[in-house]
């Protein structure tokens, strides 16, 4: 199950079972948690090293302060 607004476009995350996760970000500045070993979809790139799911979610919480896509923030 995905934990962010990007869940509709991001596929591949699975429940934690000791797996490592990466934080991924798209060109709109949106973040998601991604299981290491799964191919990252086009338009997304890994940010930082692999960590536990909880650590990845904490990193997203620290980094993603404005949930609006970058294109909308730029238009303000």
UniProtKB/TrEMBL annotation:
Region Disordered, residue ranges: 1-20
Alphabetized InterPro entries for the sequence: MbtH-like_dom, MbtH-like_sf, MLP_fam
Domain of life: Bacteria
Record's compositionally biased regions (Low complexity): 1-13
Gene3D superfamilies recorded: Structural Genomics, Unknown Function 30-nov-00 1gh9 Mol_id
Domain MbtH-like: 14-62
Protein's UniProt name: MbtH-like domain-containing protein
Organism (species): Streptomyces sanyensis
């Amino acid at each position: 199950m995905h934990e962010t607004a990007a869940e509709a476009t991001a596929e591949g995350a699975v429940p934690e079972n000791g797996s490592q996760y990466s934080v991924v970000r798209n060109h709109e500045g949106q973040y998601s948690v991604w299981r290491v070993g799964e191919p990252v979809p086009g338009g997304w790139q890994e940010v930082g090293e692999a960590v536990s799911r909880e650590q990845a979610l904490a990193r997203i919480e620290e980094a993603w302060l404005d949930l609006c896509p970058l294109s909308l923030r730029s238009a303000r």
